[in-house]
Amino acid sequence: MTTTYAALLRGINVGGKKKVPMAELRNILEELGHGQVRTYLNSGNAVFTSASRDPDALAAELAAAIEERFGFEVACMVRTGPYLRSVLDACPFPAEELAGKQLHATFFAGPPVTAERFASIDASAYLPEEFRLGDQVLYLYAPDGLGTSQLAAALSRPGLLKGVDETSRNWNTVKALVEMTRAAGDAQAG
Questions:
Q1: Which CATH class is domain 3-83+173-189?
Q2: Residue 17: how many CB atoms within 10 A of its CB?
Q3: Domain coordinates in residue numbering, the chain
């Protein structure tokens, strides 16, 4: 029995740094013994199936393989298809009414992230931008986009997430990864 996963790589192919071609990422995942490997966009999103039941071990294995192949460290997170679906379903914002680039999900790895980490942020000072916490995910509504979001800058200030790896995806990407993991699971079942 295999499980369908999505790998989320942080900070690759941005500004010409940490280049990881998607064909190479697919090759690495296949060399690690994973099946039904597909990538999405050029920003470090991959879907695959694996017999492993340990997403953290898969993430560590992928990070080590990337470092061995390319000579630099990349933070990797691996999430199951059902987890991604739960992130989509639990969105506290009216996702269907918003443009996909107005809503973002920041995924966390490491110790549980609780509201206490963000107690120093006066959320009312950033309205109409808003954020909410979910299960190891932060939902961010930035009506003018992430690039100009003052709240996003406040949420990513040094020290706030000390000891926690994180990576963000816009809502269009989250929806695409949910669909890709569902399709891979359907193909596996068929």
A1: alpha beta
A2: 9
A3: 3-83+173-189, 85-170
CA distances from 59 to 16, 75, 85, 122, 189 (A): 23, 8, 19, 34, 24
The token pair at 107 is 């995924």
3-state SS of the chain: helix, strand, coil percent to 5? 40, 25, 35
Q: Which helix (H) or strand (E) holds 50?
A: strand 45-50
pLDDT tens for residues 54-109? 999 999 999 999 999 999 999 999 999 999 999 999 999 998 888 778 999 999 99
Per-residue pLDDT of 119-172, as tens digits, reads 999 999 999 999 999 999 999 999 998 889 999 999 988 888 888 999 999 999
From the list 81, 83, 107, 76, the residue with the least C-alpha distance to 4 is 81
H or E, element range at 5: strand 3-9
